[in-house]
Amino acid sequence: NTRPVMIHCQILQPEQLPQLKRIGMIPSFFVNHIYYWGDIHLKNLGKRANQISCIHSALKQELPYTFHQDSPVILPNMLESVWCACKRETKAGLILGENEQISVYNALKGVTINAAYQYFEEKYKGSIKEGKIADLIILDKNPCKIAINDILKINILTTIKDGKVVYNKKL
Fold first, then answer.
1. Residues 4-59: tens digit of each pLDDT
2. Which pTM value belongs to this model?
3. What is the layout of strands, in order, in the sheet containing 26-29?
């Protein structure tokens, strides 16, 4: 029983997604490429760059997807990945592939429920439910109820690992 994962997926095309679904492969998108290198992708790939990290297309195919970063290429920051998946803005301020934008809720699934599924941990991680392991962060704002650009301003107040507080921001 395997759940193979395709890492990065920048140039994975929407028409290739049914093949991934057929073999049960999970795309893990380095979605931050859109912000950090999107302008370069536009220069090198032209209009094809609008399809990099085709997350909305994966969602339409009912494919579970996840997000990752390549530290130390960029710092680990899953809220930044959520912002990138929703906004799809390059450093120059261009929207790269508006049709591939997803909702904040669906972006959060890429770093919670889907990530747990990817590692066969969905029975005890990935969502809040009695009996599941309490690995949580407490944020100062609800990312689903603020403007997309404000996601980058969210502060982590507390981090809980295995039910124990491992970080608590001094207020």
1. 999 999 999 999 999 999 999 999 999 999 999 999 999 999 999 999 999 999 99
2. 0.95
3. 5-8, 26-29, 66-67
Q: Pairing relation of β-strands 164-168 and 156-161?
A: antiparallel
Q: Report how far apart the first and last C-alpha atoms of the chain are (Å, whole number).
A: 46
**Domains of the chain: which residue ranges?**
5-128
Region 5-128: CATH code: 3.20.20.140
Q: Which two tokens stand for residue 120?
A: 């066969």
Asked whether the beta carbons of 32 and 74 are under 8 A apart, the reply is yes
- Contacts for 45-48: CB closer than 8 Å, 24+ residues apart: 45/11, 48/11
Count of other CB atoms within 10 angstroms of residue 79? 19
Could you please report the per-residue DSSP string of 143-155?
GGGS-GGGGGG--
